[in-house]
């Protein structure tokens, strides 16, 4: 038995990953990959909660997301990379946890409140969408995860997982490990138009884009609106380019950047060129890895199948324990 802490995280398959995904999740996963026993999950069932009407892009999105994950350095020799829907035990555990989930707890979800109650979105008014945090709890508790790295918006889900797990533990003994969430320490990156980075806004920089494409996006990035002319001093705190610098540019250049901005010592284009170099330094090793991965078209699938096997064994152990503790029929020993 390894002494390492168990980490689980995941994301719905959205296809090509962008810098927002990288900074908000993947970068932290990579940092913890050696320290923890990691499970990284493609949450394809969760993707259905809001897009059950058209699932045709799921296979391609799963492929692209997995390739991008691997290109960042997620290593299948160290971590278990798997697909939620391949592990049927998630459905079983989700059903059981649902028995312990008060309606109020599910309805207290920000996305439920905003989209279903306030905006009256009928498409999302489903049992499945209401059960989003229950399924997510099953994902986490299945692997007895200690640590769940997530973005801010997901913290409420992990708190619900803690509540549900406690409810079971109080009644049936130590069934589940109570997980803790961990936030990424990097600031959230805005899209190049200054809005939230989102595929649907077309304002993302993708990990798989080439130098020219990346520069085109950095070149037109929104900066401090007060810097109309090159001679106007700027304020880095009002500029998303500076947020990017804080993530990608080595610290020893931060002073120079801030001074040049505040004193109008340089123009925004020069500032962006420095950023472009830093982003390139981060993306180049990913490009090399991706090229190798893409030489073997079936490789990403082999990775997932291997991961599914590892995850499934662990899931079966958990479910045997859960069934026993809950006095359920033990299940067949397949
Ligand atoms: N809800 C997460 C997202 O939208 C994806 C997810 C599903 C997840 N199950 C999880 C994240 C378990 C952390 C742990 O990104
Ligand atoms: Fe932003 Fe750099 Fe321009 Fe300052 S100089 S406003 S930090 S792009």
Write up what this structure looks like.
- The structure is a single chain.
- This protein is mostly helical and 334 residues long.
- The protein has 2 domains: 6-189 and 298-333, HUPs (Rossmann fold, 3-Layer(aba) Sandwich), CATH 3.40.50; 209-292, Tyrosyl-Transfer RNA Synthetase (Orthogonal Bundle), CATH 1.10.240.10.
- Helix content is 53%, strand content 8%.
- The chain has helices at 19-32, 44-51, 58-72, 89-99, 103-107, 110-118, 127-130, 132-142, 155-172, 211-219, 240-248, 254-262, 268-295, 299-325, and strands at 5-11, 36-42, 80-83, 147-150, 180-183.
- Strands 1-2-3 form a 3-stranded parallel sheet. It has a two-stranded parallel sheet with strand order 4-5.
- Helix 9 links the parallel strand 4 and strand 5 (180-183).
- Helix 3 packs across helix 13 and helix 8 crosses helix 9 (155-172).
- The protein binds tryptophan (TRP) and iron/sulfur cluster (SF4).
The beta-strand count equals: 5
What is the typical, i.e. mean, pLDDT? 95
Helix and strand pattern:
EHEHHEHHHHHEHEHHHHH
Cα(first) to Cα(last) distance is: 24 Å
- CA gyration radius, whole angstroms: 22 Å
Characteristic key phrases:
three-stranded parallel beta sheet; mainly alpha; 8% strand; two-stranded parallel ribbon; 334 residues; 53% helix; Tyrosyl-Transfer RNA Synthetase; binds iron/sulfur cluster; 5 strands; Rossmann fold; binds tryptophan; single chain
